[in-house]
Amino acid sequence: MPQRTVLAVLFDGVQSLDVTGPLEVFAGAETCAPGSYRLRTASLDGAPVRTSSGLTLVPDAALAEEPDPHTLLVPGGAGTRRPDPRLTDWLRTHAPRAERLVSVCTGAVLLARAGLLDGRRATTHWAYCDTLARHHPAVDVDPDPVYVRDGHIATSAGVTCGIDLALALVEEDLDRRTALTVARHLVVFLRRPGNQAQFSAQLSAQTARREPLQEVQRYITEHPDADLSVEALAARATLSPRHFARAFQAETGVTPGRYVDRVRLEHARRLLEDTTDGVEEVSRASGYGTPEAMRRAFVKALGVAPAEYRRRFHPAPAP
């Protein structure tokens, strides 16, 4: 098994979790499969850097001293807003030599400044997608996914999405079982596939302004198996069904039915990923009623049936 060197680029104003999150994943994989990864960090001059949270990171070396790595990890952070021109120049010259180029959060901005994302699909933290697209029109910016793969370049969304991407890379390099073992040791709540949206149903919808509608949102999340018809929810908000439906959509940006669908799908996915409950039990607990209703919802939203979805997270034991 070849050893893959992962080199993380450090600079003043870097987001510490963009660095430590992915490196902890690769370090965990190295523990599971000794000899699989060699982890290195480097700054422009080899000097310590101060992160955006005030922590000091001491690199292993200067960037000029490091040989071309297998995986070059470019984190984000406040330091990407006005980066040292020498860093952009180094990336432009040396990043293409890496077998795999990975950015976390606004690290994609550094790659774009160096011209490395031109003509490619990429993502970054949702708050900076518009800025990235506006300043770098040659980049095909997709604001929705957790991470995007385009050839040997992978870009991820905000902060913890770098962990999701690193887990996917470990699965690609080694195997699914190792990636899942690392995820469990890190107590990662949900190992998200790349095409999953950056936000959960609760975060992607706006929080209602009025307390009765906020209470309805909480109730839906906590009771996905309850009667969540418009009539039942309207009664909880003490509104007529028509008034409730209009007010809910106006304040959250989605219809009550769409919100319920998203919550139930996420609840079912978590149960399939994190428990051994049967498909029939999961369908009842998530409010679908029957396995067939849940199967239709999964195929429509994810393109895969519940049983196959579970196999992705719980592969059969090796013979």
From TrEMBL:
SMART domains: HTH_ARAC
Keywords, in A-Z order: Transcription, Transcription regulation
Keyword hit for Transcription regulation: yes
Keyword Isomerase: no
Domain HTH araC/xylS-type: 214-312
Any Pfam family: DJ-1_PfpI
CDD domains linked: GATase1_AraC_1 (cd03137)
InterPro entries: Class_I_gatase-like (IPR029062), DJ-1/PfpI (IPR002818), Homeodomain-like_sf (IPR009057), HTH_AraC (IPR018060), INH-QAR (IPR052158)
Top-level taxon of the source organism: Bacteria
PANTHER family given in the database record: ARAC-FAMILY TRANSCRIPTIONAL REGULATOR, HTH-TYPE TRANSCRIPTIONAL REGULATOR RV1931C
Protein name as annotated: GlxA family transcriptional regulator
Organism from which the protein derives: Streptomyces thermocoprophilus
